[in-house]
Amino acid sequence: MNKLKIAIQKSGRLSEKSLELLKECGIKIPDFKSKLKNTASNFPLEILFLRDDDIPKYVEQGIVDIGILGENEVLEQEKNVDLVRKLGFANCRLSLAIPKDVDYPGIQFFQNKKIATSYPAIVKNYFESKNIATEIVEISGSVEIAPSIGLADTIADLVSSGSTLLHNGLKEVEKVLESEAVLISNRNLPEDVSIILESFLFRIQAVINSRENKYILLNAPNESIEKIIEVLPGMKSPTVLPLAKTGWSSIHSVVRENEFWRIIDELKKFGAEGILVIPIEKMVM
Ligand SMILES: Nc1ncnc2c1ncn2[C@@H]1O[C@H](COP(=O)(O)OP(=O)(O)OP(=O)(O)O)[C@@H](O)[C@H]1O
Ligand SMILES: O=P(O)(O)OC[C@H]1O[C@H](OP(=O)(O)OP(=O)(O)O)[C@H](O)[C@@H]1O
Ligand SMILES: [Mg+2]
């Protein structure tokens, strides 16, 4: 039987979360730390552990069928691959930063400036679209050091918490793009491999749904049930069960993680009590 071949980052910002995703999809990889190529024991998947920069090329050439890496790297390399789906981790942005004591009047500041970056193609396209002439200095890491050693006037690099910029005397002035981990695929997958990919994506969807949602249980006076149901969407509609105490019911539903606190406040207003919120292991819609 044919296998789906996936490339994930060997070590770095994406590796742990990529492996965690496979694990939550129920895929077992024996002895994964010591082998750069491995086979899952319970799913037709072969895993290659690579430098993230090499993944787009391998996917384009069909050496692997799919890969997990940062959207920033996919955009930079402009390879012929399909971006299949976003994965909701390794969220960051590619931003322009300048020395913190320098005034920033607006994007024209960058006219004729030297910009150090590991993302020359993205930065070049960005400034070309704005008709601003710049000189790009390509470096592969420790980009934030460039202005302080006279290598460039400014930088374009990935930012998440902003602490690297802060510790290197820089301030963020423009966001070029937002990025997160994505799954990319070769454009000409054989039929049997596409079928395995579909089944893998189905599992990923269930895992991501479960991460984005919580199961909620609460008790409410019967006269509030209608109002409470209005704020609790549920997968179809909430489950309502009578409690032993007359005039009261237990309501069960699913809420989105990012709406959770707003919903809780409304529920309390309608007299909800004993609210329990439980993580969901897997969620198939
Ligand atoms: N501070 C951050 N917060 C969140 N995500 C980040 C951050 N920095 C980088 N990333 C994401 O993680 C990806 C991998 O980053 P990492 O620093 O591990 O890459 P690398 O040094 O090029 O690794 P490799 O050794 O595999 O070439 C980046 O392309 C980006 O998508
Ligand atoms: O805004 P922050 O939370 O400080 O994160 C930003 C830093 O993270 C990334 O580097 P990383 O630590 O992955 O090192 P590397 O570039 O050497 O791989 C990025 O290149 C920035 O330097
Ligand atoms: Mg790399």
Automatic annotation (TrEMBL):
GO cellular component: cytoplasm
The protein, known as: ATP phosphoribosyltransferase
Origin superkingdom: Bacteria
Domain ATP phosphoribosyltransferase catalytic: residue ranges: 51-205
UniProt cross-references to Pfam families, sorted A to Z: HisG (PF01634), HisG_C (PF08029)
Subcellular location: Cytoplasm
UniProt keyword annotation of Amino-acid biosynthesis present: yes
Molecular function as annotated in GO: ATP binding; ATP phosphoribosyltransferase activity; magnesium ion binding
Species lineage: Bacteria, Pseudomonadati, Bacteroidota, Flavobacteriia, Flavobacteriales
InterPro entries reported for this sequence: ATP-PRT_HisG_long (IPR020621), ATP_PRibTrfase_cat (IPR013820), ATP_PRibTrfase_CS (IPR018198), ATP_PRibTrfase_HisG (IPR001348), HisG_C (IPR013115), N-reg_PII-like_a/b (IPR011322), N-reg_PII/ATP_PRibTrfase_C (IPR015867)
Main localization (coarse): cytoplasm
Record organism: Frigoriflavimonas asaccharolytica
Chemical reaction(s) catalysed: 1-(5-phospho-beta-D-ribosyl)-ATP + diphosphate = 5-phospho-alpha-D-ribose 1-diphosphate + ATP
PROSITE patterns referenced in this protein's UniProt entry, alphabetically: ATP_P_PHORIBOSYLTR
Gene Ontology biological process terms, A to Z: L-histidine biosynthetic process
Function noted in UniProt: Catalyzes the condensation of ATP and 5-phosphoribose 1-diphosphate to form N'-(5'-phosphoribosyl)-ATP (PR-ATP). Has a crucial role in the pathway because the rate of histidine biosynthesis seems to be controlled primarily by regulation of HisG enzymatic activity.
PANTHER family: ATP PHOSPHORIBOSYLTRANSFERASE (PTHR21403:SF8), ATP PHOSPHORIBOSYLTRANSFERASE ATP-PRTASE (PTHR21403)
Regulation: Feedback inhibited by histidine.
Cofactor: Mg(2+)
Boundaries of every Histidine biosynthesis HisG C-terminal domain copy: 211-282
Protein family according to the UniProt entry: Belongs to the ATP phosphoribosyltransferase family. Long subfamily.
Pathway(s) served: Amino-acid biosynthesis; L-histidine biosynthesis; L-histidine from 5-phospho-alpha-D-ribose 1-diphosphate: step 1/9
